[in-house]
Amino acid sequence: MALPRWTALAPVLLFALTGMLVLLVDTFFPDTRRRSVLSGLSTLGSLAAVAVSGWFILSGPGTAFPPAPDSGATEGGPILLFQGQLTVDAMALLFFVVVGSVAALVSIASYDYLEEHSYQGAYYSLVMLAATGMALMATANSLAVAFIALELSSLPSYALVAYLKQNRGSVEAGLKYFLVGALSSAVLVYGISLVYGTTGALGFDAVAAALSGVDDAGLNGALGVGVLMVLGGFAFKTASVPFHFWAPEAYEGSPAPISAFLSSASKAAGFALAIRVFVTAFPPEVMLETLGIDWVFAFQVLAIVTMTVGNFAAATQEEVKRMLAYSSVGHAGYVLIGLAALAPTASGANTDVVLGASMMHLVVYGFMNTGAFLFVAMVEYWGLGRTFEDYNGLATRAPVACLAMTVCLFSLAGLPIGGGFMSKFVLFFGAVNAGFWWLAAVGAINSALSLYYYARVVKAMWIEDPADDLEITRQPLGLYAAVVAAALLTVLALPAFGFVSEVAVDAAASLLPGA
Amino acid sequence: MAVPVEYYLLLSAAVFCVGLFGILTRRNALMFLMSVELMLNAANINFVAFSQYWGNLTGQVFALFVLALAAAEVAIGIGIILVLYRNFGDVDVTLAREMRW
Lengths: 515, 101
Hints:
By secondary structure, chain A is mostly helical.
């Protein structure tokens, strides 16, 4: 069956339409008792986007959308839209699935979390619009689209973080997130302007073509600064080290479902964009040999510093949500290994495995990290405290939820209970095979350290005695469903890992030149 | 008489640095917003100048997009500064210290 080619964007359009529909329903029925309709609509919209992307992945984008006879495009290749400004390929589809699943889990969980809050229509439509931006980031094939998609996902996120406007923590988190975000988007756009200045193009392929033909060395300095500034802009979105300061504040202060959304989906989208820009627009071979700019080295430094800073800071925290925030910084460091191992010296057979492993880790991380943050949302819903001690003996009151949380945490640490084990294993193993044993070693040491602080939560929940007044009065159905679903998906990622890794490695291989 | 493109680059770098200096030193959130605007417009200078230099319209069109996005960003920013004022009674960015930095 041949569909029109623009329908390859169906997942992105579904997010956008759902956002509009939620806003429309809220306009006609501005009644807070309709919150099940709003939450249900955005959940259904996200699940539909996941289903459509899953179908495209299974059938292969080239089968559902045969290329036009005169376009010269190959069967099964990426689908270029709007004169190559957008590309829908295997990697984009994979990230549609990540963003869609996280958005669905967050929408279900928000049903209970937002029980007593107003402006729910705005909340859900902002979540959907941010998801639109994140999905668009995965398809961007030009620096212009990259910047617009990044802003489309950032602007709703600022508003969502500051959503609890009577709550000083939420407002402070929103302010800090906005200030750092505005600064880094200015840095990003200035970097883009320098890249445009030296190449005269914004499309990724056109930039790469212009770079390989450059012979005028006069503007190379400007190009180097531009690439570094673009890297800085992406480091903000993925909460990697030089621009990670906002992450613990924003995740701690914002409503917990939004922390889950930002730390999983937004980070994944940022990495999707970073991978595409740095692999297709600034190919490492060209950058190093003709221009002498070694951005792979910058990523190696970033990966190591991000892993270490994130994990050591997480180990010293007293509050569970803040610990998860720093652990999210640490996980950004693991994913950066995929880009750090792209050096031209690495043997070509393994770079696609390492890059694919980064994508796999983002997929699995999307589930397990969302589950952990949504459990924190549940604890906030019960009105218990924020520190590790406040979780003491929680398993005696809510064993199912605590079991799900335990699965998510151990999978985050890399124990073979969920998909987190496999994705980390492939990532480190691939890095060793590509000749970067020291990156893998630092990663393994950090993983071992991370087990300490994840186990602290598990110990508090299962082993410590509950306080006498610990009581749970309400059973939030939506939050329970979301946390258990996230834990189930994390466990299911273990048997399904072969399939996920195949998709991810294929996506990485099709992205890398000469493969 | 054409101005060499390097001069535009110097001008935009200067504007960018003024903006960056403002962000690093100002405590007033509104001044902060203005500094970010300066940095975005420094990029716009580059886009328009290099659009002329390369002889294509890509840069000019993208500069228009940047202007629109900057306006959207300021709208969100003003909203957040408004709730900041309501909760903390001031627009000083250093007052918001409920959490450890």
